[in-house]
């Protein structure tokens, strides 16, 4: 039997420890609207210049409510993705902030159309936004209507293997109530640490409460600051995500100081995130 020197033993032990620690690779993208390219194929070129892995692309705009449902637009996106190497990570329906899902019948067609578009483009996550006119806090009837509508569309999402991810100022408990009432694995939460903090929530309590199972995707945001310079503790957030085993997409959103250019600001944000979340 070979005898090991103390140095060899330490080297072998250290290697074993490293192998025992789960290694995760994180994919980092950005929202097309946050890099000034909402519902534009040109977003892929900007994303490549920044150095991102992918994009969260918009389903529609106020001027073009069914934009991404059109076959010719889908083909433009496929071509742009193939040309640049930038993946289509998820779809966002930010227009729901102005045309609320809780009350406007047109939005049911948008969500259904977004599921079709996601399936056609190989995307498995759709962000449903609930801010501004779509606000759900202190609106139990609005929440109940959202539950009713999600129940109707959830089976279609399940068949398409697409997740409908709720982003709102609601607490984790309120999100859980909606998810449980809908009763579908296709409905999850789109988590935004800045939004949750601004709403008075304790993100370090909410992250494990929702867990890897219910957090579909996350926004990395500091309103008016670079990520490194804002008030959120990103190192602690990194640990909280590691604790639940999160391995999904991270989309940078709204992390630009006033007056700064988009590309260099996002390059700085990306470099900072890569120190915390390696590829």
From TrEMBL:
SUPFAM superfamilies documented for this protein: Xylose isomerase-like
Alphabetical list of Gene3D superfamilies matching this protein = Divalent-metal-dependent TIM barrel enzymes
Specify the protein name: Sugar phosphate isomerase/epimerase
Q: Which organism is it from?
A: Siphonobacter aquaeclarae
A single GO molecular-function term is:
isomerase activity
Tagged with keyword Isomerase = yes
Could you list this entry's UniProt keywords, alphabetically sorted.
Isomerase
Establish whether keyword Isomerase is in the entry: yes
Q: Which residues form the Xylose isomerase-like TIM barrel domain?
A: 44-275
